[in-house]
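Q: What would this complex look like in 3D?
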Amino acid sequence: MNAVPAAAALLAVRRLKVHYKLPAALPWGRPGWLKAVDGVDFNLAPGETLGIVGESGCGKSTLARALAGLQAVTSGGIEFAGRNITRLDENGWRPLRREIQMVFQDPLASLDPRMTIGASIAEPLEALYPEIGRAERASRVLAMLEKVGLSASLVNRYPHEFSGGQCQRVGIARALVVRPRVLICDEPVSALDVSIQAQIVNLLADLQAESGLSMIFIAHDLAVVRHISRRVMVMYLGKVMEQATREALFASPVHPYTRALLAAVPGTGVHRQPLEGEIPSPADPPQGCVFVTRCPIADTHCVRHPPTLVRAVHGGFSACHFTAAVSAA
Ligand SMILES: Nc1ncnc2c1ncn2[C@@H]1O[C@H](COP(=O)(O)OP(=O)(O)OP(=O)(O)O)[C@@H](O)[C@H]1O
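A: Here is my prediction, written as structure tokens for the whole assembly.
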């Protein structure tokens, strides 16, 4: 189920599953499986920003790592520019790292404390474009620093001399210096002060608009993805609950989970029922609809039958047996 036609997609994800093997509870028992990502489908168009939201543990980081080739996939497929990249080894991924880059959640931890920020930004260029000479590399690093809003005069400083927001600017520079076509941002602002978050989101939006790259922007907070995403995908327990354009999702959400998430976002209008109860363990998810234990409108059918994503009235998709009824309400 996709809003972007497959032929137009730069990145196409099909029924993607990433299941982690868990040790058996007893020495003679069978190992269990934790379904971190459990059948995710979406297409990303060139130049598009897709926001992915959901509570902690719903599989966002696992999905991000699988898309960036940092996590083995259990089943399903990932295509980049029409090429199947699901099961490439490190050698196969090497040229692709020029095309698909990632920005991580913890900016300080993702930088080597012994390297100057200039050397950190130069590192991926050196590894992925060995044909680029030293002078050209240095000039690209300085230009990149300025692009992310840091003075070129800071090139010989070390990460500990920078604030969290500045370190994240360096992380963004490191990812973009190789001029990728897809940037995957995994909770890029959640470790930062609220006052700095908007600056980094705006920087990413400006860089995206300038370069035309495709972006996946992951956050646990709908308010954060709101400003940057053209489309938003809502995940819960490894599955897609709803997918729609930003306007449709915020104005007329269809899935009860999205409605509950929106209840916590200031300024989203209609008062909606907030989310209650704990998220079940992905090692032991509900049998039918995974949201059934917290859903205000679930009935006995939902307990036994998992819903599939179906077209909703807002033009997007929703995985709820009541999609048509809720849309009409
Ligand atoms: N290497 C692993 N082995 C086993 N389980 C894992 C592993 N990595 C993640 N998990 C589990 O998979 C589930 C999904 O984790 P993931 O980090 O992808 O979710 P998330 O939505 O990004 O959450 P958060 O925002 O807290 O990072 C969680 O239950 C997590 O504990």
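A: To summarize the key features: The CA atoms of residues 147 and 173 lie 8 Å apart. The chain has eleven helices and twelve strands.
Q: Very helpful, thank you.
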